[in-house]
């Protein structure tokens, strides 16, 4: 149970989440599911899926059976797919669950046919990423005959790269596959794939990042709203003299008298040391640059003459595309690293 007096919080915008989901669907001209693996990319899979299901989302994707179990029953009869499929160790959980496995290997196909005959499943086919999935040859060999396939899917490797030739190659392979293998539905695109437009829609898309305010592709810039904002409480304010240093390694030296606020936020909260030299917190309209290194649980910012005191809250800049550029971290890493110490506060 997260105490509601936690000294740091994520402010989460449910309307933005739903608007981003609708934008992805409209852009690909296809119904949109939602990837909610890794606890909804760090924002909280339960609250995310509840809001998206209420908006009409009927297909959710997690990585593992433990995640499926943690999510529990979804409202409105929405379906849940487990992307990593069924290992032998997963079969008991899979048989007890209403979620569908995404079968990735010939062994998984054989296992599902033998141990869950007639039960619906999804299937992943590899069209060029060489991550999970059956080969095209296996998928078209008759191996899948007799399965009740709901979603036949593949995954794009380079959809975030404008005009990468692999996108069209994968799309063409998937079109060929979908003509050859019967399934109830077909799905190719993640967030960046949805940005490639209706040719990549195939009847169902599986966005993750874009739902949570990430910009997966230049086409999304200006259309996607930020969903998560960080607010951290000031634990202490200190006055520095010229020559004073701040933090581990004494990497910051005040050149003139300064005021710094020590915020309850650190790399254990996903605010990694890569923000040193780049991070900014806001005291109202005033930008307060991060000074020194980020500690495990604490960060110092220069508040200048801002009218704030101990116990006040600062908004920490966490615009995903900007933060990714500044730190070299991916937008995915920025979201999924957020950790468990935030109070997650939805604004609706
Ligand atoms: C994670 C994942 C997605 C969502 O990807 P985003 O890039 O976050 O949109 C879709 N499909 C599969 C198979 C995934 O693993």
Automatic annotation (TrEMBL):
Biological process, per Gene Ontology: D-alanine biosynthetic process
GO MF, any single term: alanine racemase activity
Record's keyword annotation contains Cell division: no
PROSITE patterns documented for this protein: ALANINE_RACEMASE
Binding residues annotated for substrate, in chain numbering: 131, 296
Cellular compartments per GO CC: cytosol
Modified residues (N6-(pyridoxal phosphate)lysine): 37
Pfam families assigned: Ala_racemase_C (PF00842), Ala_racemase_N (PF01168)
Co-factor(s): pyridoxal 5'-phosphate
Stored Gene3D superfamilies: Alanine racemase (3.20.20.10), Lyase, Ornithine Decarboxylase, Chain A, domain 1 (2.40.37.10)
Family: Belongs to the alanine racemase family.
Name recorded for this polypeptide: alanine racemase
Gene: alr
């Amino acid at each position: 149970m997260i105490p509601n007096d936690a000294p740091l919080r994520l402010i989460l915008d449910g309307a933005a989440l739903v608007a981003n989901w609708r934008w992805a669907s409209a852009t690909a001209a296809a119904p949109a599911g939602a990837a909610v693996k890794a606890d909804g990319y760090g924002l909280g899979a339960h609250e995310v899926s509840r809001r998206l299901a209420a908006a009409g989302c009927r297909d959710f994707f997690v990585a593992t059976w433990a995640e499926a179990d943690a999510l529990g029953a979804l409202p409105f009869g929405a379906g849940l797919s487990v992307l990593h499929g069924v290992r032998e160790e997963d079969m008991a959980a899979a048989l007890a669950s209403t979620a569908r496995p995404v079968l990735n290997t010939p062994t998984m196909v054989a296992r599902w046919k033998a141990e869950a005959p007639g039960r619906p499943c999804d299937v992943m086919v590899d069209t060029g990423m060489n991550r999970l999935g059956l080969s095209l040859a296996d998928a078209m060999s008759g191996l899948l005959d007799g399965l009740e396939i709901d979603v036949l899917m593949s995954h794009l490797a380079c959809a975030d790269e404008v005009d990468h030739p692999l996108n069209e190659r994968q799309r063409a392979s998937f079109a060929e596959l979908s003509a050859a293998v019967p399934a109830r539905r077909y799905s190719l695109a993640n967030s960046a794939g949805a940005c490639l437009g209706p040719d990549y829609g195939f009847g169902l898309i599986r966005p993750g990042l874009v739902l949570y305010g990430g910009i997966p592709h230049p086409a999304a810039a200006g259309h996607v709203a930020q969903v998560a904002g960080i607010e951290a409480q000031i634990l202490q304010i200190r006055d520095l003299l010229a020559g004073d240093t701040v933090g581990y390694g004494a990497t910051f030296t005040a050149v003139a008298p300064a005021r710094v606020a020590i915020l309850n936020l650190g790399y254990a909260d996903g605010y990694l040391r890569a923000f040193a030299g780049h991070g900014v917190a806001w005291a109202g309209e005033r930008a307060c640059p991060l000074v020194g290194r980020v500690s495990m649980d604490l960060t110092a910012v220069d508040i200048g003459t801002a009218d704030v005191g101990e116990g006040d809250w600062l908004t920490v800049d966490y615009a995903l595309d900007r933060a990714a550029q500044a730190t070299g971290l991916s937008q995915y890493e920025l979201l999924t690293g957020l950790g468990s110490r935030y109070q997650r506060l939805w604004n609706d």
